[in-house]
TrEMBL record:
Keywords of the record: ATP-binding, Kinase, Nucleotide-binding, Transferase
Residues that span the membrane, as ranges: none
InterPro entries with a match to the protein in the record: PfkB_dom (IPR011611), Ribo/fructo_kinase (IPR002139), Ribokinase-like (IPR029056), Tagatose/fructose_Pkinase (IPR017583)
Pfam families, per database record: PfkB (PF00294)
Entry's family note: Belongs to the carbohydrate kinase PfkB family.
Source taxonomy: Bacteria, Bacillati, Mycoplasmatota, Mycoplasmoidales, Mycoplasmoidaceae
SUPFAM superfamilies, per database record: Ribokinase-like
Sample GO molecular function, one term: phosphofructokinase activity
Keyword Signal assigned: no
UniProt protein name: 1-phosphofructokinase family hexose kinase
Zinc among keywords: no
GO cellular component, one term: cytosol
Length: 304
């Protein structure tokens, strides 16, 4: 079974406007959408749309919890929730013709009791399961979680900020996905070239990662496998980009599940990249038809 964990889920209020934003007065908008948000949520939604069922582990509560679940029900996802006292946060995402910005609510406070309940829940997981740990997570909570998974031979994916927390890599995540900025902070280095990126990825594998993916925004991504095979993904200029929010979540989750299903790195990377572009070209997340839609915009180079 596939599980995703979102420690700080959200309700995303997405505003669209074709007018100049007025920082000092009243703004009227053309349209808006409301979505459930969070990196693990994004992953589960995309996976469901391309044919992979998953169970969504969340921490929600307060006055906004029920509204959050009303939104989540629309995607027909199975949810396991650990109740918290905080309101489920609300994020505002503004997309105008000339500018865009985000205002994110406070992160969810999770008690030790709730973390212990999570650890008890995952104690029955086994080698046939895979867990996506995504988004914000306290370092001590993360160590407890991956230690428990590791003891049961459960593979896990890390898409969290690992700055000052490389210790977690000794638990051998199946794959991690920093972006270039996060990679620099993780290793306390400055990256000036593609060769620097490759050497940094090799360093992470030497510390315990089985595979490493590095996202590089509109320029594509890199993948280094445990077999020391290096892939560079380049993306042609794409028209109609609306937002990159969720593109990385789409990329890593779809790649892992497609690869686990086919054992074909190249094809899985191609389809996952096409899906990530689909997310960037929508107001929320990619749909199933995006899995092949942008393939002609993608070039993958192996062991260059």
């Amino acid at each position: 079974m596939i599980y995703t964990i979102t420690f700080s889920p959200s309700i995303d209020y997405v505003i669209k406007s074709n007018k100049e934003f007025n920082s000092y007065g009243l703004n009227r908008i053309n349209d808006f959408d409301i979505f459930c948000g969070g990196k693990g949520i994004n992953a589960s939604v995309v996976l469901k749309r391309i044919g992979f069922d998953s169970r969504v582990i969340t921490f929600t509560g307060g006055k906004t919890k029920n509204f959050f679940y009303d939104l989540l029900k629309q995607e027909n996802l199975e949810v396991i929730n650990f109740e918290v006292e905080d309101n489920t946060r609300i994020n505002v995402k503004y997309f105008g013709d000339n500018n865009s910005f985000e205002i994110n609510g406070p992160r969810t406070n999770i008690s030790e009791n709730r973390i212990n309940e999570l650890l008890a829940f995952i104690s029955c997981f086994n080698k046939d399961d895979i867990v996506f740990i995504m988004g914000v997570c306290k370092q001590d909570h993360l160590i407890k979680l991956v230690d428990a998974l590791n003891k049961n031979n459960v593979e896990f994916v890390l898409d969290v900020d690992l700055e000052n927390n490389l210790e977690v890599l000794k638990y051998k995540p199946f794959i991690i996905k920093p972006n270039v900025d996060e990679l620099q902070r993780m290793l306390n280095i400055t990256i000036n070239s593609e060769n620097d990126i490759l050497n940094s990825m090799k360093k992470l594998i030497s510390l315990g990662c089985k595979n490493v993916m590095v996202s590089n925004g509109k320029d594509g991504s890199y993948l280094l496998t445990k077999n020391n095979t290096f892939y560079k993904v380049k993306i042609d200029e794409i028209q109609g980009i609306k937002s990159t929010v969720g593109a990385g979540d789409t990329l890593i989750s779809s790649f892992v599940c497609l690869y686990k299903n086919t054992n074909n790195v190249y094809d899985s990377l191609l389809k996952a990249t096409s899906l990530s572009i689909g997310t960037s070209c929508s107001m929320w997340l990619a749909k199933n038809e995006d899995i092949d839609k942008f393939k002609n915009k993608i070039k993958i180079y192996k062991n260059i």
